[in-house]
């Protein structure tokens, strides 16, 4: 085995081994779920109770988030395609949630696939709309139409070939948050490989395809499997920051079920999305929308490199590299004398002032502009300031003594 292969295997094994204790994950999951259920049963602080709200439905819709904090920023641009982590317990198992599938042209071929008898009936009943990118731009150009489409479906799936074109077609209605951002699915057929390389497509004039004929799509069983994985997967939306939150379950789940999803997300998140793997991980938390964050894991090394640690008594290095770095100097005036000066230097000061020529003996310089006379600065009264400070301290002591006497009584 070559040296590069050995290094790659070592890195892969290092990323797969998680230092997170599963018992700690299970303990935190039990505590968080119990707290959410207890908080839902208590009345609101305002004293008003919503009679239309159901306690069980409220808990079932409460999401649980796994929060990752890294030592350094994840240097990654804001992705339009969120990453997917397949979970042992899918997040969207509700059979009543509707799905909108956005495909590449033509849409008729994908509609025929979904309408065929080989397509599962349970999944077909949930896919209420299939539309390609051309019809999407034509029908949903107005903002009101985009809002209507947004409210009609709970889940949006999009072919990964056209998902980068969706921000211009759907606008901020879909992309200002990550709640219903389209999830990428791979519908294109796999290209053949020769010696590990994909075969290039033949060059030539484009031919018009019959919409009823099969397109460059995967076999139907692979499309069904791809859609099912995307529906129940945890989505990772990365941005250049040190904090990343991933939905891992709901408050109505059991603690064992939630802990399994958390452990799976931690392993996949560090192995696939975090640069420098576990050496860049600072801590993991789980939390609800309105709860405190419960710690699962925290590293012993808070810094990534030893060069970032500044010893005691030394100033940190400038953030500007090289010649742009500047050292700050003390703001001491020319006529101000230092308090730490030696007595000999202070005694020699009057002699130095005597040797300096008087202003009358100095030659006067001609100036074009006349300057205003210097305003005399009043001398500071240190005795009065010390007296005021002493009076304030005495008054404060009396107030503290009176408060302590009142508490003792």
From TrEMBL:
Extent of Basic and acidic residues compositional bias: 381-393
UniProt keyword annotations, A-Z: Ribonucleoprotein, Ribosomal protein
Comp. bias (Basic residues): 394-403
Acidic residues compositional bias, start-end: 341-354
Entry annotated with the keyword Ribosomal protein: yes
Region feature (Disordered): 1-22, 312-409
Keyword Ribosomal protein tagged: yes
Pfam family membership, one: Ribosomal_L1
GO cellular component, one term: ribosome
Coiled-coil residues: none
InterPro entries: Ribosomal_uL1-like, Ribosomal_uL1/biogenesis, Ribosomal_uL1_3-a/b-sand
Stated name of the protein: Ribosomal protein L1p/L10e family-domain-containing protein
Taxonomic classification: Eukaryota, Fungi, Dikarya, Ascomycota, Pezizomycotina
């Amino acid at each position: 085995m070559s040296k590069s292969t050995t290094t790659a295997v070592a890195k892969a094994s290092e990323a797969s081994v998680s230092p997170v204790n599963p018992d700690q994950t299970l303990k935190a999951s039990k505590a968080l779920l119990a707290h959410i259920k207890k908080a839902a049963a208590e009345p609101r602080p305002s004293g008003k109770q919503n009679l239309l709200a159901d306690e069980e439905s409220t808990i079932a819709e409460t999401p649980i988030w796994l929060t990752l904090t890294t030592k350094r920023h994840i240097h990654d641009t804001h992705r339009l395609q969120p990453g997917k982590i397949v979970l042992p317990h899918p997040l969207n198992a509700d059979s009543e949630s509707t799905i909108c599938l956005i495909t590449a042209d033509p849409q008729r071929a994908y509609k025929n696939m979904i309408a065929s008898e080989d397509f599962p009936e349970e999944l077909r009943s949930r896919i209420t709309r299939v539309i390609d990118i051309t019809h999407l731009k034509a029908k949903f150009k107005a903002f009101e139409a985009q809002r209507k489409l947004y409210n009609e479906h709970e889940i949006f799936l999009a072919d990964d070939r056209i998902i980068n074109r969706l921000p211009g077609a759907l606008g901020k209605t879909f992309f200002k948050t990550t709640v219903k951002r389209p999830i990428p699915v791979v519908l294109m057929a796999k290209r053949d490989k020769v010696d590990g390389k994909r075969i290039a497509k033949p060059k030539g004039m484009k031919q018009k395809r019959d919409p009823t004929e099969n397109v460059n799509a995967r076999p139907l069983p692979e499309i069904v499997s791809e859609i099912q994985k995307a529906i129940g997967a945890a989505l990772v939306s990365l941005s250049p920051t040190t904090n990343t939150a991933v939905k891992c379950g709901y408050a109505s789940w059991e603690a064992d079920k939630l802990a399994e999803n958390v452990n799976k997300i931690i392993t996949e998140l560090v192995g696939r999305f975090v640069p420098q793997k576990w050496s860049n991980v600072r801590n993991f938390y789980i939390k609800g929308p309105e709860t405190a964050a419960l710690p699962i894991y925290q590293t012993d090394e808070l810094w990534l490199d030893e060069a970032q640690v500044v010893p005691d008594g030394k100033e940190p290095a400038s953030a500007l590299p090289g010649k742009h770095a500047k050292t700050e100097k003390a703001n001491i005036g020319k006529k101000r004398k230092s308090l730490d000066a030696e007595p000999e230097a202070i005694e020699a000061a009057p002699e130095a002032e005597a040797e300096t020529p008087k202003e009358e003996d100095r030659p006067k310089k001609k100036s074009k502009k006349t300057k205003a006379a210097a305003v005399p600065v009043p001398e500071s009264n240190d005795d009065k300031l010390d007296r005021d400070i002493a009076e304030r301290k005495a008054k404060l002591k009396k107030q503290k003594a009176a408060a302590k006497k009142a508490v003792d009584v």
